[in-house]
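Chapter review: from sequence to fold.
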Amino acid sequence: MKKAGGRPETGRLKKVQANSGRLKRMQAAAGRQEKRMVKDNLDKVYEKIKDSCERSGRKPEDVKLIAVSKTKPVPMLQEAYDLGCRDFGENKVQELVDKYDQLPKDIRWHMIGHLQRNKVKYIVGKVYMIHSVDSLRLAEEISREAVKKNVTVPILIEVNVAGEESKFGTTVEGAVSLVEEAAQLPNIVVKGLMTIAPYVDDPEENRLYFAKLKQIYVDIIHKNIDNVFMEELSMGMTGDYETAIEEGATYIRVGTGIFGERHYDDV
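The token string follows.
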């Protein structure tokens, strides 16, 4: 004798299994589409790097691409990694630390966002470079943590070239003195300069800011300051990196141009 309701229960189970199968197929298709998007976008970025270098008489290998992965999920970063990306940039300490623990250890992590002194201890020993050193107090804290952990931390001095009140960074006038003071601290090495240009519709509007940072960079080189190795200019993002390359950028920071629009609810 069949149990009452036996057939409806079996039918519901089959329906759930069918829906689960469809969901998995949809997720797999979305994953393949996402991977194609990242690959296509990376190909476009590399092509633009090449074109910008040709226009400015530079070699493409002299420009390093940082994939700015803030708010993006780990699987998407893994896709970029599988496609050859090794330099990733994060704006927030917690997000960098979380992803550091989940992704391959040969990734070079760049801290590109504003860094609070009380959070320095969480990233020293994990980051490849800190781009956003904007004060002597922050440099001193990085130095203290580096000494504790017996590591040397490469840093860039962030310069607010455009003088925007909403942006962090030392002033143009204070850049050289900050470089000189930071260079005297143990276990850090000043490798260059960084700036975040204004958000503009026409990247040509930012050319003067990139050119100004390059001039500061050259002036510092001529000073021959001990423990200062002016090798890097971190400037240019998705909307203006081609102009930045033409003005001498060695690091460009591209997020939307690789991963698409950011979704802050994914954090």
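Two observations follow directly from the output. The first strand starts at residue 64 and ends at 68. The beta strands are 64-68, 87-90, 108-111, 129-133, 153-158, 188-194, 228-234, 251-254.
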